[in-house]
Amino acid sequence: MNIKVLDTTLRDGEQTPGVSLTPKEKLRIANKLDEIKVDYIEAGSAITSEGERQSIKEITRQGFNAEILSFSRPLTVDIDYCLDCDVDGVNLVVPTSELHITDKLNTDFENLLELSNNAVDYCKDHGLIVELSAEDASRSGVDFLKSVFDNAIDHGADRVCVCDTVGILTPDTSYDLFSQFRDLSVPIACHCHNDFGLAVANTLSAIKGGASEIHTTINGIGERAGNTSFEECVVSIDRLLPEFSTEVKINEIYDISKLVARLTGVYIQPNKAIVGENAFAHESGIHSDGIIKNSATYEPMTPELVGRKRKFVIGKHMGTHGLNNRLKELGLDVDKNQLQQICDNIKVLADKGKTVTDVDLQVIADNVLEIDHEDRIRLDEVTIVSGNKVMPTASVKITVDDEEILNAGVGLGPVDAAINALKSLDIFKDIDLIEYHVDSITGGTDAFIDVIIKLQKGDKVVSARGTEPDIINASVKAYVAGVNRLLRD
């Protein structure tokens, strides 16, 4: 059975505190949603503002294959704004719990039912597709909920939706609730919130109970604890519910996850299922060994399924099999004794709380293999002059192939000046600094500074680091170390 996907990242997802997307950003997300074959896109809420309406109009102009909807209350003014945006349909949200009807709307059940029916009539009279969503349905009386749905269907509603607005369902109660609507003559959708961390589980149970459509947001963003996670739910349907499927291009899930994270600024936790940076990362020796022999031993799916790549993390839990695999990727061949020695040295560093990078691994391996890497460049001295009214100036003294060289340079700051003093020398030409990152690894004004850089020469890219209390010395040492690596390679 095919399950339809309505994505509400651009409406419910944007209600995440601190998130406000520009029209261009919304269009980029909508374009990607359509590209990966989401069935329905809730582009926003037309009543919200003029800017929101412009965003929705820009999306509807694109001629996407996906059905484009706007959120709407059961009010003529809302629906008119939706019509002005030329959407295909509306997500007509009607409160159905006693709490919402009496305390929020200050009305009664009969008036609410009339309001709902009139709104559906108005939408259908104006050619709109209608999905009627029962707000707070999980705290509504089932008999009244059925009455709202039956009336809406009689008045022409195309789909209906049960909303677990405050996330109180459990997998069991979700299944039981949706099972009571199996005999409806139109598709029923499930809209869950994640207040108790059960949104995905409840959505999957709703599908088993009879739902044929799900509402999701990319990365599960949304107000409070968020909504049903698009990537977790879609992949779970594909891998865990063999009798159900979606049309979504699963191998592009990671791309859209990263896109939404960048545009919204909402951080993805490293251990988040499917799209977290650690989702396909292995450090444990037992796990790494199993993965190398057969990935199914410790992975329920291949990372390629969702557009990812597997990675082995260097650390104290890493075993020799995973370490040997990483060393081979770095072009290093070691024997059994050398491998064990490298592994032991890594554990010593990791026990001190140090993150072991590829650069560290390369140095450790070089020392164990007793490879004689004579550095052509040695840094002897760095002197800086800088102040409010003084152009930052640096002089450096280095030894290149046993020849002592003194040079100077200026820059926007002292680090820039020191690097420029080196870059103007012949041996540093054709080497580009492509990444520069600084971390304070201890506290206080005497903190140690960890500078990590990436350098490129031709098609060769290397990383290097320098750790010093002085950011200038750390930066220059990292730069010289990286250039030595490039020249050596």
Helical content band? 25-40%
- CATH domain class of the largest domain: Alpha Beta
CATH architecture descriptor text of the largest domain: Alpha-Beta Barrel
Give the biggest sheet. 8 strands, parallel, barrel
| Name of the CATH superfamily of the largest domain | Aldolase class I
Strand proportion, as a percent range, falls in 15-25%
Instruction: Pick out the low-confidence regions.
Output: none
Q: What integer value in Å does the Rg equal?
A: 30 Å
* Tally of strands: 16
Outline, from the CA principal axes? elongated
Average predicted confidence as pLDDT: 88
Descriptive report:
The chain has three domains: 4-264, Aldolase class I (TIM Barrel, Alpha-Beta Barrel), CATH 3.20.20.70; 281-369, Recoverin, domain 1 (Orthogonal Bundle), CATH 1.10.238; 377-488, Double Stranded RNA Binding Domain (2-Layer Sandwich). 38% of the residues lie in helices and 22% in strands. The chain contains 16 helices and 16 strands. The strands form four sheets. The protein has an eight-stranded parallel barrel, surrounded by six helices. The chain starts with a strand and ends with a helix. The model has no long low-confidence stretch (mean pLDDT 88).
